[in-house]
Description:
single chain, 102 residues, alpha+beta, Alpha-Beta Plaits, four-stranded antiparallel β-sheet, 3 helices, 4 strands, 37% helix, globular, Dimeric_a/b-barrel, monooxygenase activity, ABM_dom, oxidoreductase
Amino acid sequence: MFGLAVRFTLKDEDSASGFDALVGETLPHIRESEPGTLVYAVHQVEGKPLERYFYELYRDRAAFDAHEEQPHVKRFLEARGAFLDSVEVDFLSLQGAKGVAG
């Protein structure tokens, strides 16, 4: 399995609303058309209203690469910059889990 964690820091409250709307447009496409995307969880960070945290888990690196090539993901990646102050990405190697086929 292949995963990543992403922390987005948004510019301001208006940017947070726009970013959340963009995520809301993108998520249904990921659910419906990406069988190799096992987990795609989007979180608001408690006590930090301008932060969002994504946890993504893919069947393998090829599934992640396929995710990145989807039109809805390309649109998200192109549009998100208008809302962001910063982004941090950590690529993860799953060592153990509960509730995830492995």
